[in-house]
């Protein structure tokens, strides 16, 4: 999955966070924002993704409610 498309989707939804490709061909990241938009991002990551991606599985972990955002912007990490 191209981090560029993921970054664009996160920004479109008004989320903050980061995303990166791993050496094993997976994508890792952290997303924060309103619960409804975070859920929409999870659906996008699970079912659509970037145009050239082949999604076989999506796993989300360490989910929690926060009082205020801990990150700013949405960035691609390398």
Tell me, briefly, the overall form.
globular
Mean pLDDT across the residues is 91
| Spatial arrangement of strands, main beta sheet | 2-1-3
Looking at the overall shape, the CATH architecture is 2-Layer Sandwich
Q: Between the first and last Cα atoms, what is the distance in angstroms?
A: 14 Å
Looking at this protein, list some descriptive labels:
single chain; 78 residues; alpha+beta; Alpha-Beta Plaits; 3-stranded mixed β-sheet; 3 strands; 29% helix; globular
Your description of this structure?
This protein has a single domain (3-76), classed as Alpha-Beta Plaits (2-Layer Sandwich). 29% of the residues lie in helices and 19% in strands. It has two helices and three strands, in the order αββαβ. It has helices at 3-12, 35-47; strands at 16-21, 27-32, 74-76. Strand 1 and strand 2 (27-32) form a beta hairpin. It starts with a helix and ends with a strand. The model has no long low-confidence stretch (mean pLDDT 91).
